[in-house]
Amino acid sequence: MAVPLPSPHSLAHRARLATLIAQLRPTNFRAPLARLEAHRIPTLWTLYRGIMRDSPTNTIRSHMRDFFRARKSIRAQGEVTRELARAYNRWDVFRRAREGEVHAQSVCSRYDKMIENDMLQRRADRVYHEELAWYERMRHRPIMTGAYHKPSLFNKPLPRLSPQPVHITGMISARRKARANRMARQELLQENLALLESERKFEMGLARKSADEGVPSKLVYSDAYAQWRDPIHQDLRELSQSFELEKERLNTPYTPEMLEEIKAARREKVANKTRERERERRGEMTNRLEKQMRKSPPAHVLVKMSHKRRHMDAVTRGVSEVGYVGEVKRALGFKLRNPEAWKAELGKPENRELLDRMAQEIEEENARRQVDFAESGDHGKGS
Question: For 229, which of 89, 138, 245, 273 is 20 to 30 Å away at the CA?
């Protein structure tokens, strides 16, 4: 059955619909609009220059310059139309402000202040992030511990750093992998050399037997043995040179300058820890002391300790040697730095009489208050 062709009126109607729909289809530019003269000339010579000329302040002018620079690579038709409409609206406000319109001038004034505040906020954020990045670098910067990073096949003598820089770790890791690859290649080359020698011997034996039987034979490995062997030997020599360099790296001694730096770092570490202990004894809670006071005996020891003994163990983990902590430490037989330090709590000898009298007065006052409190309680019950 033949399908009838559409009528000319239907074809004309379809063509008219296609034309109308084509006008609504968005255009995706394949190149930046800055290359299209139909867009570039009116935008650059009219809109951009007009905005630069009519901008009321330098702050707004600089902001609009950044506005165009950030959008110069837009290609989608919808985005281009929307951003151009924004630019034309702002230009209209700038022109009305330049002509003396009060409302437009107030809008431009608020716009200028808003831009300045945004610039100040951006500058503050940038400074904050720079300081934060510097703090993180300082917090994770490598510090010499005073220990030795001894030489090996993969590194020359180095000072021990904490934390170890990533590039040193990467260097050692890469050299380990390279050595493993060289050893595998050396084993393969030696195996190839042994196979070549076996093939040569087999070929020579086969040639002798063929000659005895009067059959001619063509030698492949025997006549050009050096050409087969020399490339393998060359690769083996290069690998041997690499292994010799590793041995030199292993046997490299520390330089006097590096030894002095390591010893100075060790002395500084001891001095720093000494200052840390002094701060702890003055009452400062450091990270080291906090970790020490949170510790407890091993599980097999802790399970056999009484509640009182556990309490005493927790008390003795502090750094104090006077007061209740000093009393507990003396009871447990701790060796104290200054066994006589607890006597400072009694006061100076010339003040003992005064202190004893004040202590007696405090005890009498506490006793009197206890009696008054008891009598008031009895009186309340009787009423």
Answer: 245
State how far the Cα of 326 lies from the Cα of 339, in Å rounded to an integer. 9
H or E stretch covering 148: strand 143-149
Q: Mind giving me the DSSP string for 232-297?
A: HHHHHHHHHHHHHHHHHHHTPPPPHHHHHHHHHHHHHHHHHHHHHHHHHHTT---HHHHHHHH---
With beta carbons less than 8 A apart as the criterion, state whether 149 and 172 touch: no
Of the candidates 274, 272, 276, which has an alpha carbon nearest to the alpha carbon of residue 264?
272
Q: What are phi and psi of 161, to 5 degrees?
A: -115, 145
pLDDT, tens digit, 9 for 90 and up, residues 186-197: 999 999 999 989
Name the phi and psi angles at 162, rounded to 5: -135, 120
**Whole-angstrom Cα distance, residue 70 to residue 21?**
32
Give this prediction's pTM. Answer: 0.56
Segments of the chain scoring below 50 in pLDDT: none
Q: CA of 2: how far to CAs of 5, 14, 209, in Å?
A: 9, 22, 87
d(CA 197, CA 226): 11
Please enumerate, as own/partner, the contacts of 23-30 that have beta carbons within 8 Å and a separation of 24 or more: 26/76, 26/77, 26/78, 27/77, 28/75, 28/76, 28/77, 29/75, 29/76, 29/77, 29/80, 30/75
Q: Are 55 and 94 in contact (CB under 8 A)?
A: yes
Per-residue burial over 25-35, b = 16 or more CB atoms within 10 Å of its CB, e = otherwise: eeeeeeeebee
